[in-house]
User: Which sequence fits this backbone?
């Protein structure tokens, strides 16, 4: 079963806090400086100042209470929600008098993402970041909808099923 969600926006509060501490992959580039974000000043003159990644990410994340725009993602995702592969075991005639059919199946749930959305903001020098979390695992369904903050990853399960028909 392939499952998808098209559209929506989700904020990754976990990434926001981790970026403040310099832990995410997005904070690796320009750690030693040399990051020119471009832009203009209040008079419209081009700004030619290079900064370090720490300056950018601590400002953008603001710790736990930064600007959500930097950590907003398109919630679009397509995943393999469930897959099953079965085999009917051939039975000899003497066994078929008791067991009519025996089927062994492998079943997997939440196997993988085929597509995950990317960040809404295109950061100069870094580009758009792919969503690294499961958008189904947000904080709740009231005022916290669309926010992922310290949520557990979705559960993946693999198993076997043995079905006997008598």
Assistant:
């Amino acid at each position: 079963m392939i499952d998808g969600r098209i559209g929506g926006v989700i904020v990754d509060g976990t990434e926001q806090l981790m970026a403040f501490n310099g832990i995410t992959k997005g904070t690796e580039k320009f750690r030693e400086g040399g990051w020119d974000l471009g832009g203009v000043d209040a008079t419209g003159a081009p700004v030619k100042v290079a900064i370090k990644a720490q300056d950018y990410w601590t400002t953008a994340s603001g710790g736990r209470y930064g600007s959500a725009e930097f950590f907003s993602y398109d919630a679009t995702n397509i995943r393999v929600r469930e897959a099953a592969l079965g085999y009917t075991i051939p039975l000899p005639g003497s066994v078929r008098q008791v067991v009519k059919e025996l089927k062994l199946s492998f079943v997997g749930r939440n196997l993988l993402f085929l597509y995950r959305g990317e960040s809404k903001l295109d950061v100069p020098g870094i580009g758009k970041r792919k969503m690294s979390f499961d958008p189904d695992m947000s904080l709740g369904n009231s005022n916290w909808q669309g926010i992922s903050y310290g949520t557990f990853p979705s559960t993946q399960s693999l198993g076997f099923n043995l079905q006997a028909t008598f």
